[in-house]
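User: Hey, quick favor. My workstation is busy. Could you predict this chain's structure for me?
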Amino acid sequence: MGALGLLFIGLICFVVAYKFYGDYLDHKVMGIKADAQTPAHAMYDGSEYVPASAPVLLGHHFASIAGAGPITGPIAAAAFGWVPVALWIIGGSVFFGGVHDYSSLLASSRHEGKSIGEIVRRNVGERAQVLFLLFSWLTLLLVVSVFTILTRDVFVSIPEVATTSILFIILAIIFGLAIYRMKLPLGITTVAGVALLILCIYIGFNNPIVADATTWTYFLLAYIFVASVAPVWILLQPRDYLNSFLLYALLIGGLLGIIVGRPSFELPAFTSFDANGYLFPMLFVTVACGAISGFHSLVSSGTTSKQLNNEKDARLIGYGGMLIEGLLALIALSTAAILTTEGYSTTLAEMGGPTGLFSQGIGTFLSYLGIPMSFGVVFGGLALNAFCLTSLDTATRLARYAFQEFFETRVPALTNKYIATLVGLVLAGALALSGNWSAIWPIFGSANQLLAGLALLSVSVWLMRRGRDYRATFYPMVFMLIVTLTALYFLIRSNLAAQNYVLGIPGLLLFVLAIFLVVETYNIMKSAQKEDVKA
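Assistant: No problem, here it is.
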């Protein structure tokens, strides 16, 4: 088996699933209403609630959910061998992650664009909402910290990317003003924007900005503070839309390179049940966003649902966006699988982890097309960094939403968006400055996957109460809760035994919150079922 065969199998599976399983989700599970007024129209405010066309919103949503997760996770999990990772990426994306993202998006849209936390309050109760918001907020702090580390590491190892990323930010602001204030046509501005995007890459490639990790950490924290409190139309939405072309170019370039070069897999199909911990449950939480991610439910219900123009767009944006991410995860896996076992370990060590290995792998794929290896490596790092930056400011904004929602009726003064953002960034920044990605990633992956299980749990309750078929969300939820609670238990035990309280205590808090929330929701579901029987 080689990279081309794996991608062909994955692509066929995703296309078939999008058509047939997507039809089932649209009509049997969610009951799509093309004439329903979405919150983006009903609650338009020019800041958070702003309708976006399907291509623009797909670009924003995909760029926000992708991050470094579907790249870092599969590469790290390749230590188990490429076959178990590939099977989980494909099956997970179709039956777990895609369903999770799609159902979260529509559930939020049917609740005035409110977060999953609000859906929990209305369908389970206020106590459950408090538990969910606390869990979400803690998980988002882990997201911000780990992506800050990954982004700064790319800036340090490939300084050309730093220059280009800063230029992208300026370009996005200009693009947002052109679309929403000057009312210029999307087609013309897109062509101009992509052309300027290429110019930014050229300038960055020839004018690298060199700085140390600490400097870049503080720069990133300052940037995401501003980005997370600014209106979505001026930076978040236009930058993610433009960045999506980088991501699509990465996907197309990687695919074409694999088609032309047809690299074979040198990494063993299977290595051991005990590589980075035991295959069960660590494979699933290590692959993380490459198959399913709880962070996606917060994006779907936090920003995307407030921009959904029509319910019929939800399949493309929610389900389709996750399938595209699955394809990206397969490409990332291929960059590791073309290496020998020794080459895999050496490249991870020499290139600063999975992000460096991925950049080098993309450089190899593009070199098959006649593109210089040095440029390909920079381009791979740039695309990866684009993922990280979009996830960073989206996660910071979502953490602010969760914080504000928690204190809305308790301490209204703390709902100020600047205070709510600053509190989260101080804690996430301290964690980023104190550790490295490999130390935080396992507990981030466990918390993130557990959040996905809890989101599926809340959607299942909502569907059940509406009399809809909730099996598509219920069975994945059960599996994810078993996997992630087991993984979190092992990680808590090992961190506390090693006296690593910085990660051990947050992990313990997440575990306890999750157990209480599961018990609370289970009781509500049992009560609802009894009411149905009596009726």
